[in-house]
Amino acid sequence: MRTEDDTSSDRTGWDRLIVAIATRQDREAFKRLFEYFGPRVKTYMRRSGATEASAEELAQDAMLTVWRKAALFDPASAGASAWIFTIARNLRIDAVRRERRDGSALAAPAEAEFQIDESPQPDSSLAATQSDKLVRAAIAELSADQMRVIELSFFEEKAHAEIAKILDIPLGTVKSRLRLAMNRLRNLLGEPS
Amino acid sequence: MTIRHHPDDSMLIAFAAGTLDLGQHAAIATHLAACPRCRRLASAMEHVGGAVLENLPPAPMAGNALERVMARLPEIDRAAEREPSPEMAAAEIPGLPKFIRKYPIGEWQWVAPRVHLRRITLPEPSRTRVFLLRSGPGTKMLQHSHTGIEMTCVLSGAFKHEGGHFGPGDFDLGDATVDHQPMVDDGEDCVCLVAMQGDLRLNGILGRVMQPFVRL
Ligand SMILES: [Zn+2]
Fold first, then answer.
1. Which ipTM score applies to this complex?
2. N or C: which end of chain A has fewer CB within 10 A?
3. pTM reported for the whole predicted model
């Protein structure tokens, strides 16, 4: 069982690994990131509906993208795992679309669809709009129950009714936990709810 | 710009999770472009996504996975060579996110007196149709109900209905249980981006007369 301290040192460690890739093409750093995140990205792909073979390929592609885009990573705002999550998410969307098109080329990668804020900043992805530290602290304040409800919302259009079934709690509880969790986050991020 | 009406939390989570279909994604993105509050929350959800990813149990990867990826590291990123696609000038319809301005968009078409629409052609199949709707000042927008979910984001002008007053950036959600007759404010046209699932049901005598002609 990891303690909270271990996790947070991992976290800044991961950030540094990505910076090492960006600044000196550090293959050893890449290897360590790959070993931790590759298998987890694969699980993410599997749970999002990808076959074993395509989850493997997508996990490899995601890690390759981490290498290629390392220079765009801003540790002050994104945080390694949030950044890798967005890479994996965008690749998953592209893969689903390519499958629907029988393999023909995409009109545009999904990545652009998440670049909303046009105010000038180095990387205008959503993840870059606030400090990773602040958000991580806010997330850590959520109860395990609240976190679980949010987590389940991350996999393919899980309707609230389905989440209620999985967690074996009434639908109303799913909705109220989600609302509480989001209000909590909003407050912690300095927004009146 | 004071935004009073926001998409609900589950939509912001679904947006960040990347599980919305493209048409609904476009409607939420249009709101996010105007609303720093929801943008912050959607961004926080990407961090939650990071935390979710971090804590997933690992799935064993192919024995040679690392070697295969290492061998590909020097490959050039082809995306960087992609030709930039033409896009609509930001000033033509203020408030549309950049990626939507790259989609093919039709001319304004007449729908009803003082109501016009422009279709937006999504590059991927979607269960949601997306269009811009422009209604003249003081117009009673078509009274209608829906068979599916309808998302509306105001780009300019304003309207009101029983649910409140909606100005630039505001987000409105209609579903089968809602039967609204929005009324456009005096003074200027109201332009909205609408993402609509299912069929639009026009109500009232005008609707019944028009229904055969309006294929949204
Ligand atoms: Zn908002």
1. 0.88
2. N
3. 0.87
